[in-house]
Amino acid sequence: MPVLVPMPADAPYSYSVPEGMTVEPGSIVRVPLGPRLVAGVVWDGDGGSVNPAKLRPIDHVFDCPPVGEPMRRFVDWVAAYTLSPPGLVARMMLRAPEAFDPEPWTPGLTYTGVDPGRMTEARARVLGLARDGLAWTRSGLAHAAGVSAAVIDGLAAQGAFEPTLIPPAPVVAAPDPSFGAAALSDEQQAAGAELRAAASAGGFGVSLIDGVTGSGKTEVYFEAVAAAVAAGRQVLILLPEIALTQAFLDRFHDRFGARPAEWHSDLPPRTRERVWRQVAEGRVQVVAGARSALFLPFRDLGLIVVDEEHDPAYKQEDRVFYNARDMAVVRGRIGGFPVVLASATPSVESRVNADQARYRRVALRTRFAEAALPDIRSIDLRRSPPARGGFLSPPLLAAVEATVGRGEQALLFLNRRGYAPLTLCRVCGHRFQCPDCSAWLVEHRFRGQLVCHHCGHNERRPDACPECGTFDHLVACGPGVERIAEEVVERFPQARTIVLSSDMMGGVRRLRLELEAIAKGEADIVIGTQLVAKGHNFPNMTLVGVVDADLGLANGDPRAAERTFQLLSQVTGRAGRTGKKSVGLLQTYQPDHPVMRALVSGDSEAFYQREIAERERTQLPPFGRLAGIVVSAATRADAEAHARLLRRAAPQAVDIAVLGPAEAPLALVGGRHRFRLLVHGGRRSDMQAYLKALLAASPKPRGTVRVAVDIDPQSFL
Ligand code: ADP
Ligand code: ZN
């Protein structure tokens, strides 16, 4: 039998099935591998041509529902598409080893119908609860009746209870599709009906909900969720920042009377295992999760929703490089069920798919209720520069003052953590750089540290320059959110100010509390990174100021304009969620840049058309295909030499060209030197076959050299 083990193996290994053991494709088993025992999945096919005498037997079959056929095909597909060993993809599916055994049943008690000889008030309370014959745990019953456990033991001794076993509790209650259906606007109604029909009909198809921020995309895709739940199918909702989506879980609860099961890396291990197991058993019907939730072993998945489908967080750039948005569509095609993508600023790829009618486009053009979109304006920093040493221009400061004066909230957005992105010595010009990366150290003043944002290296900020020894002449260059906060506190000492960024002390729990506090109006001025841009509803926020609207445009990424447009639309969309008039102000040195013009005019359509035309002209995705190859090694020479060997091994092809190698913009990361090749192909080119041929024709990486292939790269650093 072929068994796929969670290792970088290119194919399943063969094992024999001992007498008396039954397995089928999908069975989760334990097998010997070298000196160890590992968990694996029985795969399809006949298991290759290993000499039967050498076959080692499967050690154990877990009492676990087998991984279904669609999931196995999905693992194969992802492996083939991303050029990853199938074993590594399977590993993503097997991330909860303790869950392969069934959850234990809990010892409990049921009432026998026999009453004790002597009745006390405490005993009467206990029996009052237990008389209906349902099972209780000893401590649960004592607690509910408000008595000590000794009272329960006394009753048991008199024969009033007999022991029983209670099955494991569900991690979440069952959702009720008709629990709290919202009254939808006409526009929402029409969109919802379309999605509902697609979800009840089943069958593969992709819908793109393209709706301005605040138009109620969530309410609308809940219609599809309700239809799938009513049909008894399982549903997966992917969210880009699951750890911060408390508000989403509450909304789901309002709509369905129960929460979805959560799936992300911050879950306690025990909860993870229980969710995994109950998803496999089909007992959990709806999961809301991060990209890794795609690899949960759903028993009967019938719908996937990808919220904020354009979000770069859906791309995993580690081991198996995949985009969860794209893979969700693949999973829907394999499983034969509908997929819903939602965004106020769809990716160019999804927009083109909708324009070419491969996806159904469901547009929501107006904000819900009386909420109006904010009035967006740019502030030309060449004409209205900030005061010396500051980063906020006079018009922005005036707007903040007026907003706070009216008792409303202002958000200042800067997508840069810490205090300052660069520290240098004013005497000798020394710049603080990471010893292991080609990156400046970012000062984090609250923590008193200089930190590398690529590898996490950190050191105390010294008082003297390590180069020339001069004291007190180190200067911070440029702003991060902490520095903006300092400027705000200086200008508005009376205002209540909150800084939000992902490196804040106290982690996700503290962030959740802070976000709730802001929504309740407990802050006047919020200073935040992209964390605040995502999905939150702050009813009293009427001003969003973007400190550096040009920040994302600088790098050589072909998606820089698209990304900046998406991020700034999203962040300015935090303003004006209720009827109040609201404003978004963009501080920029390039007010004529197409991105700024699109934001100010509100004409996103023109922006998309221009961007799409440009991609078509340059044959960039989705009109062409890209793959990145990153070669890294302990020395620069080794990395460069191997990158050149790859280039030399590149076969000739009419519709595929290899560019590079070039030293990566991030030439050094975590002590490894990096070179990049970019493979550019036509829309119909077979990128995977080409890359396989290239890798097969090149020498195996030796020593410290490593080669990573990134299909559909998002990062070019
Ligand atoms: P989007 O995801 O498009 O930005 P949301 O789904 O978050 O929009 O909706 C924005 C706000 O409007 C939310 O507070 C939501 O509860 C509210 N809302 C939208 N549609 C309705 C509706 N039909 N009934 C009640 N509230 C709604
Ligand atoms: Zn570093």
Tell me about this structure.
The chain is of the alpha/beta class and 717 residues long. The protein folds into 6 domains: 93 residues, 3-Layer(aba) Sandwich (GIY-YIG endonuclease); 61 residues; 183 residues, Rossmann fold, CATH 3.40.50.300; 178 residues, Rossmann fold (3-Layer(aba) Sandwich), CATH 3.40.50; 62 residues, no CATH class; 88 residues, 2-Layer Sandwich (Alpha-Beta Plaits). The chain is 31% helix and 23% strand. The two termini are 43 Å apart. The structure holds adenosine-5'-diphosphate (ADP) and zinc ion (ZN). The site of zinc ion has 8 residues, from loops.
Number of domains: 6
Which ligands, by name, code or SMILES, are bound? adenosine-5'-diphosphate, zinc ion
Task: Work out the strand percent.
Answer: 15-25%
Mean pLDDT metric: 93
Continuous helix count? 19
The chain-level structural class is: alpha/beta
Strand order of the largest sheet: 11-12-10-13-16-9-17
User: How far from one another are the termini?
Assistant: 43 Å
* CATH topology type of the largest domain: Rossmann fold
The CATH architecture of the largest domain comes to 3-Layer(aba) Sandwich
Shape: globular
Largest sheet: 7 strands, parallel
- Spans of 5+ residues with little confidence (pLDDT < 50)? none
CATH superfamily of the largest domain: P-loop containing nucleotide triphosphate hydrolases
Indicate the percent of residues in helices.
Answer: 25-40%
Record field, number of beta strands = 32
Instruction: Indicate the CATH class of the largest domain.
Output: Alpha Beta
C-alpha Rg (nearest Å): 29 Å
